Amino acid sequence: MTQRFVLAIDQGTTSTRCILFDQRARLVAVAQREHQQHYPRPGWVEQDAMEIWRNVDRIVPQALRDAGITADQIAALGIANQRETTVVWDRRTGAPIRRAIVWQDTRSEDLVREFEERPGAQHIRELSGLPLATYFAAPRLRWLLDNIAGLRDRAERGEVLFGTMETWLIWNLTGGVDGGLHLTDVTNASRTLLMNLATLEWDAELLSFFGIPAAMLPRIQPSTASYGTTRRVVPGIPIAAALGDQHAALFGQTCFARGETKCTYGTGGFLMMNTGRELVQSSHGLLTTIGYQIGDEKPVYALEGPIAVTGSLVQWVRDNIGLVASAPEIETLARTVQDNGGCYIVPAFSGLYAPHWRSDARGLIVGLTSYITKGHLARAVLEATAWQTREVVDAMNADSGLQARALRVDGGMTSDNLLMQIVADVLDVPVMRPFNAETVSLGAAYAAGLAVGYWPDLEGLRNNWRLAAQWRPQMDPVHRADEYENWQRAVQLTFGWKRSKRHPAGA
Predict the structure, then answer these.
(1) CB within 10 Å: which end of the chain, N or C, has fewer?
(2) Residues 247 and 223: beta-carbon distance below 8 Å
(3) Is 187 marked as a binding-site residue?
(4) Binding residue per annotation — 358?
(5) Is 342 annotated for ligand binding?
(6) CB atoms within 10 A of CB 204
(7) Torsion angle in degrees (nearest 10) through CA of 58, 63, 65, 66
């Protein structure tokens, strides 16, 4: 019998990867291409959606060649993607209207402030589960409609289409201008500020509030569903799943029970807790979102707490400050001391995300004395990630009424063993890293394979999860409480540093 595989496309912020998995969730082949980041103005971040599509066109056949297999051996394709990044393209030509606006982009800051003052703003979180913020897709889509001549009229006529990256790829894979399917999944739709979390449909009140024409929006599908069959790149492969990257990581970590929590540590940190079938509205600064939806089943909801700066703080002290020559050296340097020496670093480089949501915050280093060495600074760098994680986990426990009993982790920073120990210490729960670190790609593969019967059920996926490393808390409880209090005092000092510019009278 011919062996079959599942294919995952992981369309990330800096690169796109194609990974093949076998039935035991083992990685068979991987192909990857980076794409360029564009920074035309301060706070603006853009990508060329056509470049990303061309990369997919190259890496999918490459992965199959490397594995020595053909398209008929692929049981299903699943897609995971960077969320909130916004693409608008011409339905007739397939060309993007302009470069995609990335989730990190803050050009819609003034728009968001205007929206906050409008009648109905207080209902946005209740309907969508999200706060008004530049982080989500609706404000940047509205910015495009306001700033490109004639675009609104074309959108209302259905001549241009909107999508996040999975929508753009599905449309192209299923035919593009020749009958491409315009679809999104509930997890990505839940990050736009336009979907009603209870009905799982585009919400008329939200569309009216943001001024978004319904004609340009994709049809919302469950996370596991029939998304058509590829007609381009490698024809004949069923597309059976799509999830936002962090939702895919939740699925790949097999966090299928209420209270199970994961964190992906990369440039930033993304914590997500499964809250089951219950839609939990946050009162502690978190995002309510869809965890995943399997076929026609009721959705599984989640609480999410994004942290803006984790790994990028290590990059900053390496590239801008020269504290270390390479990222792994931060652990070596931090191990030269026993503690932070009273020094704390709050990396609010462009504000703080969850649970504070303070765009006026700016980073600081506090507690400096003549005693402080490079080792203490390195230790404070690692502790900044740990304490930010603690803030979010505390908020999740308070919102959900559940208790995170462990934290499953993935991402590049999990190779830092000292950091993982510090996270366990400040959370007072075990931290667990799986053997398969490709949890985003694996989650997309799991969802696609589940949809077509390649894997029988969720329990079968759980059986694939293997523990590679575990860290248990060792910190004295009194010391933990004292350090957390110091961290919170440091965070308070970051607030209010960015103030509105003063303009001369009459300007």
Answers:
(1) N
(2) yes
(3) no
(4) no
(5) no
(6) 10
(7) 130
Average pLDDT, rounded, for the chain: 92
* 229-255 per-position pLDDT tens digit: 999 999 999 999 999 999 999 999 999
5-253 belongs to which homologous superfamily? ATPase, nucleotide binding domain (3.30.420.40)
Residue 494 annotated as lining a ligand binding site: no
CA Rg value for the chain: 22
* pLDDT the model gives residue 359: 78
pLDDT at res. 89: 97
**Number of Cβ within a 10 Å radius of residue 321:** 11
Cβ atoms 285, 357 nearer than 8 A: yes
Rounded (5°) CA angle 440-463-222: 45
Q: How far apart are CA 311 and CA 307, in angstroms?
A: 10
The predicted structure's pLDDT at residue 170:
97
Q: What share of the chain is helix, strand, coil (3-state, %, to 5)?
A: 35, 25, 40
The reply to whether 62 sits in an annotated binding site is: no
182 alpha carbon, distance to own chain's centre = 22
At 353-365, the pLDDT tens digits run 899 988 788 999 9
User: Which of 188, 241, 170 has its CA nearest to residue 454?
Assistant: 241
Q: Is position 246 annotated in a ligand binding site?
A: yes
Q: Known binder of ligand: residue 373?
A: no
Q: What is the pLDDT of residue 506?
A: 38
Instruction: Tell the residue number behind the tokens 């050296």, with chain if given.
Output: 329
Where the chain has pLDDT below 70, the residues are 1, 499-507
**Domain residue spans of the chain:** 5-253
Largest CA distance in the chain: 80
pTM (predicted TM-score): 0.90
Any known ligand binding at 109?
Answer: no
| 385 annotated to a ligand binding site | no
Cα–Cα dist 172/170, whole Å: 5
Torsion of CA 359, 360, 363, 366, to 10 degrees: -140
Phi/psi for 212 (5° steps) reads -110, 120
Q: Are strands 74-81 and 5-11 parallel, antiparallel or unpaired?
A: parallel
